[in-house]
């Protein structure tokens, strides 16, 4: 029987866990064994006895055949892996290649959840999207907490308060969730992206589309590179537009590269006092020139917040969603009830960052 190990996450501030009891039950029904480290679910308020009732053993997860994590294993954790073991989790292959190298030298196989291709067949395994949904939702709540103004329009005996205006820059999964959440709170919402083809998605959420008059549409549905003149004009128009909003939420990320600057220091200076910028790209430098990753600062009476791990602040649902992604990937790796990843499968080939045979081949 293949044994799945679930260790306790050790990254600072991390409260998620890679598997929840409901998913443990499903994996057990599929013929897999599960061992959970004591206290692994404590951050998500899941007690050890809940895992035990689901059929998991409480013990050492590092000797398991497959170790499932949220964050990349530390050097110390990599040293605990058994021979020819497998690790599944966010392994940061583009930003922290040393993680994959440590796994390779340890003779382990690594599957990176962030490398699951975004194709129809892999939607249930798309952990980037599931966690981006959490981040987009939480970003709006953070903005409302930092704001000096109401989000909804309020009509009172003392008069009417206008609704807050929210601009979301980058309307991928996190951006669309941010627009939807801000709308639910009663704000007037607007979305912008360099891909004009997503305008209908923005409008479908009851938001307006910010048209800067500079299009990056290219062939095959991909954005083309803007010329220097077009970039400068787009930035000028965006800076002008930002000053009219109470809240700006930025979500623009480029895999393996520094985040693009969307909100300049001048744009922040021109915003109304009490306004808020929530930058979800802080881990790669941020979309705002005044961002300090992991901090909340006030500049020109405008709050600029750049949280680094928003999904971890909603550990219960974030863990549930992530565990379902892991379950779907594990099920793809099973053949006749046995753990046998087929690396000719395009999904597994895309997310496999190292394979234990690499080390064996080198040793020969």
From TrEMBL:
Residues 5-135 form the Alanine dehydrogenase/pyridine nucleotide transhydrogenase N-terminal domain. InterPro entries: AlaDH/PNT_N (IPR007886), AlaDH/PNT_NAD(H)-bd (IPR007698), NAD(P)-bd_dom_sf (IPR036291). Keywords: NAD, NADP, Nucleotide-binding, Oxidoreductase, Translocase. Pfam families: AlaDh_PNT_C, AlaDh_PNT_N. PANTHER family: NAD(P) TRANSHYDROGENASE (PTHR10160), PROTON-TRANSLOCATING NAD(P)(+) TRANSHYDROGENASE (PTHR10160:SF19). The transhydrogenation between NADH and NADP is coupled to respiration and ATP hydrolysis and functions as a proton pump across the membrane. This is NAD(P) transhydrogenase subunit alpha part 1. It comes from Streptomyces tagetis. The lineage of its organism: Bacteria, Bacillati, Actinomycetota, Actinomycetes, Kitasatosporales.
């Amino acid at each position: 029987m293949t044994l799945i190990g679930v260790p306790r996450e050790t990254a600072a501030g991390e409260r998620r866990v890679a598997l929840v009891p409901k998913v443990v039950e499903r994996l057990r029904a599929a013929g897999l064994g599960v061992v959970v480290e004591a206290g692994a679910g404590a951050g998500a308020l899941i007690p050890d006895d809940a895992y035990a009732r689901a059929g998991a053993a409480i013990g050492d997860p590092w000797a398991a055949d497959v170790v499932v994590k949220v964050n990349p294993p530390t050097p110390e954790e990599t040293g605990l892996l058994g021979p020819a073991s497998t690790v599944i989790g966010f392994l940061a292959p583009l930003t922290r290649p040393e993680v994959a190298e440590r796994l390779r030298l340890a003779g382990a196989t690594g599957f990176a959840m962030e490398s699951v291709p975004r194709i129809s067949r892999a939607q249930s395994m798309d952990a980037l999207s599931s966690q981006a949904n959490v981040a987009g939702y939480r970003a709006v709540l953070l903005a409302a907490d930092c704001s000096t103004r109401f989000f909804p329009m309020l009509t009172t005996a003392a008069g009417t308060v206008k609704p807050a205006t929210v601009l979301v820059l980058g309307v991928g999964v996190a951006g669309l969730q941010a627009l939807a959440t801000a709308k639910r709170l009663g704000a007037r919402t607007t979305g912008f992206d360099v891909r004009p083809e997503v305008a209908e998605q923005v409008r479908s959420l009851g938001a307006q589309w910010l048209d800067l008059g500079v299009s990056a549409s290219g062939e095959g549905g991909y954005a083309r590179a803007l010329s220097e003149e077009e970039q400068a004009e787009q930035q000028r128009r965006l800076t002008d537009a930002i000053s009219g909003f109470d809240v700006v939420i930025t979500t623009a990320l480029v895999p393996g590269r520094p985040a693009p600057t969307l909100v300049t220091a001048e744009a922040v200076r021109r915003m109304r006092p009490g306004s808020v910028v929530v930058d979800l790209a802080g881990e790669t430098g941020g979309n705002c020139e005044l961002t300090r990753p992991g901090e909340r600062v006030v500049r020109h009476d405008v709050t600029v917040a750049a949280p680094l791990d928003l999904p971890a602040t909603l550990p219960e649902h974030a863990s549930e969603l992530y565990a379902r992604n892991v379950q779907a990937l594990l099920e793809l790796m099973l053949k006749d009830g046995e753990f046998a990843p087929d690396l000719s499968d395009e999904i597994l080939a895309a997310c496999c960052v190292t394979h234990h045979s690499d080390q064996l081949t080198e040793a020969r």
